[in-house]
Design goal:
336 residues; Peroxisomal Thiolase, Chain A, domain 1
Length: 336
């Protein structure tokens, strides 16, 4: 038997950080900065568009992937799988992963490259798919999974909610195929979906149902749209049973997990979930204070930061749990 093991991580956020006061000056919108910091946990963020940087999704992904490869000491030419996990791709088509493969490998190679789009659960689902492919294909030695987010590119000028919450960033993991006797490696994942909840929040313009037209632009119904308020307790109800089931299926107690990396959209929700699991809140690392909400990038970015801070060591048991609008939820269990 073989499995996938994380051997390198990388992270990228464009430009200098933007705090609440500067954000309001740059955008002209107003929001309750104190409430945002206290309840949601966000204090600053990185947004290429507001810094005048000519950088978008593929650029973020390339930077994070390059760092993961460099930290692992692996030549990009050795990578046989490129997965970009995002719902803010560079283009509708071709896939951002194809662009990433071209940038890193410089031409045609016997590599697979595709995107996974499951809203903000994209990284968790992409990681599960990559681990299965690596375990099942003897010739596949290395695979890259990059969670990346560029939602500020879709925010309308007067959207105070969007500007205050969403930010740019990318996080990457490099996976290696190892034999089952290696103490580190991917153990498994759990997913859930409910496509009847598609009409809450998303980017609904630009696809086949709602192509971009002059009429749509004039009406202002483009970009990020909040069609209905999301239930405030949705993740509180969703995450604990999935996490319990994931750990139980693999024979682990919740207390054996060193760290829980949860979608970084709301610090209060994370604390409530940890309380429901009867675990200390400190076992769920958070980075939204410095990076804002970075969607499918937030979990690999948080993992990378924890590794840099040495709060995560080889042999630690980890859980990832990510929620995305639409609705999709993915979890992962692995030994780092």
């Amino acid at each position: 038997m073989a499995k996938a093991k994380i051997i390198g991580t990388g992270s990228y956020a464009p430009g200098e950080a933007i705090d609440h006061q500067e954000l309001m000056r740059l955008t002209g919108v107003q929001f309750d900065a104190d409430k945002l910091s206290a309840k949601i946990g966000i204090q600053r963020r990185h947004i290429a568009r507001l810094r005048g940087l000519d950088e978008t999704t593929a650029d973020f992904a390339e930077q994070a992937a390059g760092e993961a490869l460099a930290r692992a000491g692996v030549d990009p030419q050795a990578v046989g799988l490129f997965i970009v996990a995002t719902d803010t791709p560079e283009y509708v088509s071709p896939a951002t992963a194809i662009l990433l493969q071209g940038r890193l490998q410089g031409g045609q190679r016997p590599s697979a490259a595709f995107d996974v789009s499951a809203s903000c659960a994209s990284f968790a689902l992409g990681l599960d798919a990559a681990a299965a492919m690596i375990a099942g294909k003897p010739h596949l030695k290395y695979g890259l999974v990059v969670g990346v987010y560029n939602m500020p590119a879709h925010i309308r000028p007067d959207d105070a909610f969007g500007w205050s919450i969403f930010a740019d960033g990318a996080g990457a993991v490099l996976l290696e195929r190892v034999e089952d006797d290696d103490p580190s490696g991917y153990l498994g994942g759990q997913q859930t979906a409910d496509g009847t909840q598609w009409n809450y929040v998303g980017v609904y313009s630009g696809g086949t149902r709602k192509p971009v037209t002059h009429a749509l632009l004039d009406a202002g119904t483009w970009g990020l749209e909040l069609l209905q308020r999301l239930p405030g307790d949705r993740n509180v109800k969703l995450w604990p049973p999935l996490i319990r089931q994931l750990c139980a299926d693999h024979g682990y107690g919740l207390d054996q997990v060193k760290a829980y990396f949860l979608t970084q959209i709301n610090k209060s929700v994370i604390e409530e979930v940890m309380a429901q699991l009867d675990l200390a809140p400190g076992k769920a690392p958070t980075i939204m204070d410095r990076y804002g909400y970075t969607g499918s990038a937030c979990i690999p970015m948080a993992l990378h930061q924890a590794i840099l801070d040495r709060t995560i060591q080889r042999g630690d048991l980890l859980v990832f749990c990510a929620s995305g609008a639409g609705l999709a939820v993915g979890t992962n269990l692995l030994v780092y």
